[in-house]
Amino acid sequence: MTMSDNWRPSQTASAVCNQGFILLETYSGYRRKLRDVTVPGNFLDPSASDAALGAAVIRALAASRQIPPGGVRHLLRCACRR
Fold it and tell me: Domain range spanning residue 31?
């Protein structure tokens, strides 16, 4: 069995939290995920409710997408323009 036999597409997001805010960001790609700069990050107040935090996580994951290997270049070009 090879690694490619076990691979399945998945949604990916990251969370960063400090005393000032919570930031949820969407990642997209093929096997290796990159920050998807075409999707705005979700900023929340640190005192956000569990329901608000859960909804933001679901939005970030729902925006994650599988991009064919050739399409990752487009994602990188978008990142360079920002």
Answer: 3-81
